[in-house]
């Protein structure tokens, strides 16, 4: 853990000066669960194959957001953005190599703000990007690295060279995420009598897909249906929007199905570790004064658009990610169809816990959606990604996704009402001129998207 008293002291006055919102009757805890590379292929989001009973349980106890979008579909930019409450155009973090504070300097990250207001803070696992965990200050900061002698780590010779998976002989608690879950449970139990902000970072289903064999045994290739992509799908997509890797385009259908099974196995393993953490809240009876926010840091492609894998696109499968919020006194078991984005986490948690507002944040508290998930809300959400030094800037409304690659000359427009899988790029259709005009206004001025604007 890195000392940062100078930075904190310099910002105390600014923190103390923020206006407040309605104070809750008692100080609420926060459990922030960050899951690496988790897409929306989950039971509670309607997937009939994937087994995720603990994520599904959390959705029944809170609000499941169906239109939640990361602000950049890559680990370091996404996490820097949500932890700072600032969009990537301000953080300037667009890759996994640049330290989060390179341009932000004395920014107060989310758990640091809670610490300044009397909370015990702890993280285990990946909350900030793994290389830069020390950029964020916590009272307790730990990683659950893989031990050199863990069993079953030899790479399979018959798997694709870029998508790797292994079924181990380990017990759950011997895997890194298993150790993370049990340490988080311990920290919750040890600090149950004081307000805490605990960050739990699960690595799976990030590559390589490693989990005990029993989770791989849950899935078979014949259970998997590959995307039914139109033969001409790529004809109207700008090449710069794609991230195809030739070795993966050459996979057989069997290999594709096996890879998807491995991703699901890693997801189910993560879900079981989440159950360990939720069990700790059960034992110490903290559900009535703890906010639980679970999210995937971005989505993950599973062979859509004729061979897309991983993230780093602004297609739905990559930019959209799961988000579930369970908060005392708020709705239970309700889905929310409204647009939210990851920069909204920071102000939402501040409002739920009654901490002073922080006026320099880009996001909007979506606490009203936890009370009425169907109410009218913001007009748009924003995701950017950089390909070959060209920035793709996207704006989504509840109907459309519009993206410009370096400017309006290379663009994409998809009408989700008729084309939810984004197979038809309408950017050159003259009948869409009015829609594009309005979307460009929103793209260039996010203030116009805020509720009530």
Query: Structural class per helix/strand content?
Result: alpha/beta
CATH class term: Alpha Beta
What is the CATH topology assignment? Answer: Alkaline Phosphatase, subunit A
Strand order of the largest sheet: 4-3-6-1-8-11-2-12
Biggest sheet, open or closed, and with what strands and sense? Answer: 8 strands, mixed
Taking pLDDT < 50 over at least 5 consecutive residues as the criterion, the unreliable ranges are 1-18, 148-160
Instruction: Say how many strands there are.
Output: 16
Number of helices: 14
Question: What would you give as the CATH superfamily?
Answer: Alkaline Phosphatase, subunit A
Strand/helix succession: HEHEHHHHEEEHEEHHHEEEHEEHHEEEEH
Taking all residues together, what is the mean pLDDT? 92
Q: Judging from the principal axes of the Cα atoms, what is the shape?
A: globular
Measured as a percent range, the helix fraction is 25-40%
What is the radius of gyration computed over CA atoms, rounded to a whole number of angstroms? Answer: 21 Å
Identify the CATH architecture.
3-Layer(aba) Sandwich
Supply the number of structural domains: 1
Through-space gap between termini = 42 Å
Share of residues in strands: 15-25%
């Amino acid at each position: 853990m890195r000392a940062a008293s100078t930075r904190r002291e310099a910002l105390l006055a600014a923190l103390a000066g923020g206006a407040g919102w309605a104070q809750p009757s008692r100080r609420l805890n926060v459990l922030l669960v960050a899951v690496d590379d988790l897409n929306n292929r989950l039971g509670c989001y309607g997937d009939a194959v994937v087994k995720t009973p603990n994520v599904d349980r959390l959705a029944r106890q809170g609000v499941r957001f169906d239109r939640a979008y990361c602000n950049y579909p890559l680990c370091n930019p996404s996490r820097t953005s949500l932890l700072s409450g600032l969009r990537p155009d301000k953080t300037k973090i667009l890759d996994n190599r640049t330290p989060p504070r390179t341009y932000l300097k004395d920014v107060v990250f989310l758990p640091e703000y809670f610490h300044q207001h009397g909370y015990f803070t702890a993280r285990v696992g990946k909350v900030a990007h793994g290389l830069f965990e020390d950029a964020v200050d916590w009272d307790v900061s730990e990683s659950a690295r893989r031990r050199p002698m863990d069993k079953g780590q030899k790479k399979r010779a018959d798997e694709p060279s870029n998508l790797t998976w292994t079924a181990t002989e380990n017990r759950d608690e011997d895997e890194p995420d298993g150790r993370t879950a049990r340490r988080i449970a311990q920290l919750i139990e040890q600090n149950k009598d004081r307000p805490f902000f605990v960050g739990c970072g699960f690595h799976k289903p990030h590559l390589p897909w490693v989990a005990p064999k029993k989770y791989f045994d849950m899935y078979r290739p014949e259970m998997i249906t590959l995307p039914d992509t139109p033969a001409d799908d790529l004809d109207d997509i700008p090449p710069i929007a794609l991230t195809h890797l030739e070795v993966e385009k050459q996979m057989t259908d069997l290999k594709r199905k096996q890879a998807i099974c491995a991703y699901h196995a890693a997801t189910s393993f993560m879900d079981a570790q989440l159950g360990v953490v939720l069990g700790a809240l059960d034992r110490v009876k903290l559900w009535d004064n703890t906010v639980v926010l679970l999210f995937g840091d971005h989505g993950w492609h599973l062979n859509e658009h004729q061979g897309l894998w991983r993230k780093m696109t602004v297609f739905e499968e990559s930019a959209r990610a799961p988000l579930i919020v369970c908060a005392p006194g708020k709705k239970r078991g309700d889905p929310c169809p409204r647009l939210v984005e990851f920069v909204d986490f920071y102000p939402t948690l501040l409002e739920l816990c009654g901490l002073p507002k922080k006026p320099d944040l880009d996001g909007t508290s979506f606490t009203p959606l936890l009370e009425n998930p169907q109410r009218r809300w913001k007009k748009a959400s924003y995701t950017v990604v950089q390909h070959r030094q060209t920035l793709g800037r996207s704006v989504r409304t509840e109907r459309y996704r519009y993206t410009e690659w370096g400017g309006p000359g290379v663009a994409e427009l998809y009408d989700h009402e008729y084309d939810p899988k984004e197979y038809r790029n309408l950017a050159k259709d003259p009948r869409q001129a009015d829609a594009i005009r309005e979307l460009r206004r929103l793209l260039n001025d996010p203030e116009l998207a805020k509720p009530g604007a």
